[in-house]
Each structure stands twice: as C-alpha cells, then as structure tokens.
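in:
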C-alpha cells in the first residue's frame, strides 16, 4: 500500500483554462451538464435513475430503502450516479459506454449526448463520503466509446470505500483501468492518506494521452506513465453493495456528497 509524504508536489492550474464549472447553486440539476442516470442503456429508467438532494452549493447522492437494484443480473447493486454523456447502439446491440462485462445488450437505447467529454486536461471534484461498509463514493472518467469499443479505458480519480475511511486516516483507491483498451494496462493502487474522507476533500486528475497525475487536496498522490487521449465522460457515483435483498429501512438513506466540480482544458 502506497503512502504520500508531506513533500509531495502541488497541483499547478496555470497550464489550464476552466471549461466546466459546477457548484450546484441552481434550483434544480442542470440537464445541460448532467444525466442523472447510471449507464441507462444497460437497464431500464426506473433502475438507472439517481436519487439525490440539492443543497446550497452541494449535492447529496442517495440510496433509498425502496430503490431497485440497477440490474437484477448483477445482483443487489444499487447506484445513484451523475454522468456527463450517454451513448448506445439500438436495442439488443452490444454498443454502449462502459460495457463492464461480456454479454451486455442494450435495453434502453440512448442518443449520443456529449455534454462534457474531454480528451485531456484537468478534472477535480470535492467529495464527502460516509464510513458505511456497504457503500462506495467514486469519481471516474470513462471512455465514451462512440468512436469504437476499444476506447473504453478509465481514469479513476478516487474510490472511497466506506469501511476504509475515518478520522484515523483513509485509504483511497485510484489509477487506471484498461477495460477493453488493449493499449492500456490496469494500474490501480490503494493509497493510505492522513485524512478523514468523511469530511470534505478534493480529488483531481491531470492527464494527456501519455501521462496521468492524480491528486488529493492538491498534493500529488500518483504519477502513471500512461494516459487516455480519446473522449471520456465524467461519472460521480454512490454505490451500495448490500449483502442481501432484504434490507432494514431504518438503515436508509445511504448517502455521499459532492461539491465544486471543475473541468479544465490545456491552454
């Protein structure tokens, strides 16, 4: 498990220009920026729809006691997710963003929506997770795949598992996942940080087609000698991994919070 020293390099934004700014200050979620569904092409709208609350300056993703599983074939997984694009082929086809396992076919066709699909730059988001062993809060850049199923790589800014965070320190999982991109290799790491991820912290990625840098609270956490140069959509998700279908309503809602999402393009 990697650790970060106090001498870690700091994030320098001077080489970037802002192109995407979200502070969740409006009366409703901005549909010109966000799709409030999780990979809706692989399931049905009632199962992919996010549950959330808007607060002044931040948004709470929520898993409710009555929320259905995202895909019954994938077990009891529940998701509330925001993403910045959608794409799929026709019903019954296997074309669509993030084919996470073989055998997936489109159930709810999605028109191409490239609301924000950068190919290089800097992304950062401020998150507040909960120490619940059944949930994970995450930020990913996922290959859009409209131009080909091999453009499927993922930059993982952070995965915050509820059983690995707290006031004594937090373990942050981050890196790159190849998925269907044969030009990439999986390179994920668990990094132990002296932070309490149940409070607000900022997670960021700066990347080109050849290099990726990952930051927490503006401190460099990992540098990878590979990157992604094709369009990716931004995804911010709250996952629940319940042990069984029978759930105690008193344990809900589960939640994770997001604020200050920023996207920058290279100058």
């Amino acid at each position: 498990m990697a650790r970060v020293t106090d001498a870690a390099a700091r994030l320098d934004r001077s080489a970037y220009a802002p192109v995407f700014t979200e502070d969740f200050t409006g009366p409703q979620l901005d549909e010109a920026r966000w799709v409030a569904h999780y990979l809706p092409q692989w399931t049905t709208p009632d199962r992919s729809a996010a549950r959330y609350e808007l607060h002044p300056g931040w948004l709470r993703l929520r898993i409710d006691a009555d929320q259905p599983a995202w895909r019954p074939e994938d077990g009891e997984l529940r998701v509330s997710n925001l993403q910045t694009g959608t794409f799929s082929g026709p019903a019954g086809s296997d074309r669509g963003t993030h084919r996470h396992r073989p055998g997936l076919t489109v159930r709810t066709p999605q028109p191409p929506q490239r609301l924000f699909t950068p190919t290089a730059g800097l992304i950062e988001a401020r998150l507040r997770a909960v120490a619940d062993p059944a949930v994970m809060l995450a930020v990913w850049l996922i290959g859009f795949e409209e131009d080909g199923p091999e453009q499927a790589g993922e930059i993982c800014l952070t995965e915050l598992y509820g059983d690995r965070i707290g006031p004594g320190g937090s373990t942050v999982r981050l890196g790159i996942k190849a998925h269907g991109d044969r030009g990439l290799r999986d390179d994920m790491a668990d990094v132990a940080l002296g932070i309490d991820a149940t409070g607000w912290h900022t997670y960021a990625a700066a990347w080109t087609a050849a290099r990726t840098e990952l930051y927490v609270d503006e401190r460099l956490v990992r540098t990878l000698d590979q990157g992604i140069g094709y369009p990716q959509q931004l995804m911010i998700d709250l996952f629940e991994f319940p042990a069984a279908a029978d759930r105690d309503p008193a344990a809900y809602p589960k939640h994770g919070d997001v604020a200050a999402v920023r996207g920058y393009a290279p100058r």
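note: The chain has a mean pLDDT of 95.
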